[in-house]
Amino acid sequence: MQAVHDLVDALHHARPEDLPAVASRVAVALGALDVELYLVDYGQLELLPLPRGRSAPGEPVRIDGTLAGRAYTGGEPVRAPDGAGPAADERIWVPVVSGADRLGVLAAHLGPDTDVDVQELRVIAAAFAGIVATRRTYGDALERTRRRLPMQLAAEIIWNQLPPLTFATTSAAVAAILEPCYDVGGDAFDYAINDEVLHVAVFDAVGHGIAASALTSLAISAYRNARRCGLDLADTYRSVDKWVHAQYPADYVTAVLGELDITTGDYRRISAGHPEELLLRDGRLVRTLAGPTALPLGLGYLGDPAPVVAEERLEPGDALLLYTDGVVEARTAAGEQFGVERLVESVTKALADQLHPAETMRRLVRTLLDRQDGQLQDDATALVLTWTPAARPA
After folding, report:
1. What are the PPM-type phosphatase domain coordinates in residue numbering (predicted)?
2. Which of 20, 104, 252, 291 could form a disulfide with 39 if both were Cys (CB 3.0 to 4.6 A apart)?
C-alpha cells in the first residue's frame, strides 16, 4: 500500500523528470532492489530507460529478441533470473499500458529473499501508465526519452495532432502505424468512440514537409469539429472539403472517413479519392471495398455536392485495413513495390497468430522498412479496425 500511496502522490505532484525517483521509492516500499521505467521509442524498436536526474541515460533494450521485448509485445509479465547460482537475483518485466496503448515496460529487480506478487506489480505498472499518460504533456523529459533521433518540425506538427496508436473496447479495436516516424509530413489518422459508433479516418495530403503537415492538420481539425458538432458522414465530408478548399485552394487531401456500429457491425464510409479499404476474414482477403465514392477533400466543388456513403455489413472477427498509397507503393532499390498482396499477407499472418492489433501493425512496419533498407520514398500510414462483439448480433 505504501507503493500505491507514493504513486498517488506522484500522480498529483510529480514532474515528468521525477518519475525515476518515484520508481526508486516504490522499490523501497516493495522491498525490491530497484524499479526502473522504460518507454518505447517512436519507431517501436527499443525500450528506453528514463534517466535518473542529470545522469546519463541507461542502455536501451531491443524489443525483438529480449525478455523485456516479450513483455512489451505479448502484454504479459515476464520473469527470469538476473544472475547466477542458487541465490540469484530475479528481474520481472511488466508491460506498462494505458488503456490499450503500449507505453513501455516496468523492470523490477528483486533480491533472492524478496517475494513480490506479480499481480501487485501489474497494479504498479498500471499506475505508472496513468502517470505517464497525464504527465507527458506537462514537460519534455518523457518526449526526449522516447526519441532516438531529432524529430523534424513537420513530424512534430502531425504527432501533436494524433490520438494514441492503439484503442480498444470489448467489441472493437483500432491500431495504427505512421512512418517515417521522425520525418512524416502529409499522412495522419484519427478515431473516436461515441456511444455505439466508432469513427475512423485516414488522411493523405498532397505534397511533403511542413506545407503538407499544415494541410493535414487542418483536415484533422475540421474533421473533429464536424464530428463533435454532430454532423453525419456526408455533411462531415462537405465541411472538411469546404475548409480545405477555402484555406488551400490549390491543394487537396485524400481520405477515408468511416463509421462502425459496434453493436451491429454496420460500416458506413466515404472514400475521398483514397485507396480502398481491405476486408479481411478468417485469415484472408475477402474483397476490396469499392471506391472512391467522392472526390478528394478540397476538390468536392468540382463534382456532385452529395458524396456517396457506401455501406458494408461486417461479420464477427472481421478486420478492415485502411492505408495510404505510401505503403503499397514503397519500392526496393530494384524497383519492386511492396504491393497489396504483401500488405495483406503481413497483416493476415499476424492476425492468424492471434497477435494484438498493435503488435500486428508494429510487425507490418518492420517488414515494410526491412524491405526498403529503412528508407521510405513516401509517408506510409496504415490502420486496422477489428470487430469482435461478445455475441453475434441479431
Report:
1. 169-387
2. 104
